[in-house]
Amino acid sequence: MGDSKKIETAYEAAKQRYAELGVDTDVAIKKLEKIPISLHCWQGDDVGGFEEKNQGLSGGGIMATGAYPGKAGTPDQLRADIEKALSLIPGKHRLNLHASYAETNKKVERDALLPEHFATWIDWAKQNGLGMDFNGTFFAHPNAESGFTLASADEEIRKFWVRHAIACRRIGAQMGKALATPCVTNMWIPDGYKDIPVDRKAPRQRLKKSLDEMFEQKFDKNHLLDAVESKLFGIGSECYVVGSHEFYLAYAVQNKTLLCLDTGHFHPTEVVSDKISSVMTFLDEILLHVSRGVRWDSDHVVILADELKALAAELVRGDYLDRTHIGLDFFDASINRVAAWLIGTRAMIKALLIALLEPIQLLRQAENSGDFTTRLASLEEIKTLPAGAVWDYYCIKKNVPPQDKWLAEVKKYEMKVTAKRP
Ligand code: RNT
Ligand code: ZN
Prior knowledge:
By secondary structure, the chain is an alpha/beta fold. It has 14 helices and 12 strands. It has one domain (36-358): Alpha-Beta Barrel (TIM Barrel). It starts with a helix and ends in a 6-residue tail after the last helix.
């Protein structure tokens, strides 16, 4: 029996098993194929970007570690790597770009960036049928060396970053217009203190002022959606981060922006899965940065962990998928970077599939009738339902390698392409 035949047979058996629990696997697959994941460009080159003088990440509150060979060194290499990754991921997805990936002939300051500096990216996205999302780059820059950007007490520096944000929103709006799908433009700043501050108030007031200035201009929501991203602490901002969760949640509610919840930006026992239904009671839409926190790091490659499954389950159970933009945010320089994208993105899609296959009626019935014994027992039993058989079938239906077969493709690409890079 050929591999595809085996997968189809296993799928038929899985379909029957799920049907017994009132779940239609074909319907789950139909829903799954409509969920785009925004693939972050920065996994491909350790958040390096293509500015004239590559400043690296120092001082930015984030850090890529590892020295695996073969990282993308040019925009064309990065695009080729992303194309390779996308060719091995089922479904239609999006590209999430940072402002530092502009393509300019000569040095263009960040506050002078224009949509034309992203024309090649936009054309490429169009050719590949990808929507685009965008991010301001508020780190790895001389004007970020003090550790403060939009919340800086230095008015010239603060204004510089406000101009950068305004430039980014114009670029995002142009991306959305050109690709006929709204571009979620996210703002994350590293601002904070390594040690205990005595004034927690003034920087937050300055940040509010900057945000108000940045978001003054209104754009068509079909082109641009603004998002603000909170964080608990960063490297070098352990004691105080200006843009905390409370700060941005309040700002987003008051100003009707999207809130970006990065799953690596909270206390280790605090989970984003529990926050979705709270913030969605007050916000129209959210952006997710799906990541994996490990001890002090917030950016490990996403895996199919319990919390990822819980997050996906919340999106499905609450019917929030239409109001949620799912982006990824991790950067691991210690393994093959194309494989990192694939591991993380495939894990995210698997989690969504498992959520869509959940026999929710049974579970709700148990909960609503107060039968918590059945609820817990059922939650345990469904963990070993044959979701893997549905996943493999979904992969072959979408013409991408099922199981671990994508890895051989990545190794081939490594030998032929990435390993040859200087
Ligand atoms: C940093 C934020 C931010 C970055 C990217 C590169 O803690 O998560 O989203 O990771 O913008
Ligand atoms: Zn993030």
